[in-house]
Write a structure and sequence with these properties.
Layout (H helix, E strand, L loop, with lengths): L1 H14 L14 H19 L9 H23 L3 H20 L5 H15 L1 H9 L3 H16 L7 H19 L12
Amino acid sequence: TAKIAANCIRSLLLNTNTNTNTNTNNQPTSADHSLSRHLLPRLIAFVTNTSPEDPEHARSLIAQTLVQFTALVARGSSQQGTQGASIAMALVVPTLLSRAATEGAKDDVYRETSARLLELASADQTAFRAVVGAMSEGQRGFMEEVIKSGRAGGMGGGGGGGAHVSAGRRRSVEEEEQAPTIALKMNFGG
């Protein structure tokens, strides 16, 4: 049920910015803004509060929704010349890092957070740089660690887990190359 609720929230939040049926110039309506203002603080609180269990990975879905929402806002603000992307980015980047800090490298959180941070960086590089520039040295170092460990091995854990995964992959490739192959020849015609 948590996964269904997360997908419903995703539909509500993301479809408000792309609804062309009610608005001919593709601008969000005041109802869209109101819905976003109501949902965003609650979604941020949900993602950062990692004490309750999350067996359906709803936190992950909501984090992805926040990133997609930020990308939509970035696209809209670049067309309109507004600061929406900077504001959304300033909310979502710390949210993702907070979740990674509290959950740690378990359950591939670093890998997921790394992917989400890179999505944000590609959505609006200027806003992302501004947010990173405003971070403390410790926060930037942690973000770099999350991105590196997320990209290196997919398991997080500060690089140690990544080395084991890479070695395991190399070993399995070598075993596949040395394993005997069986060539099947079938004569179906006679």
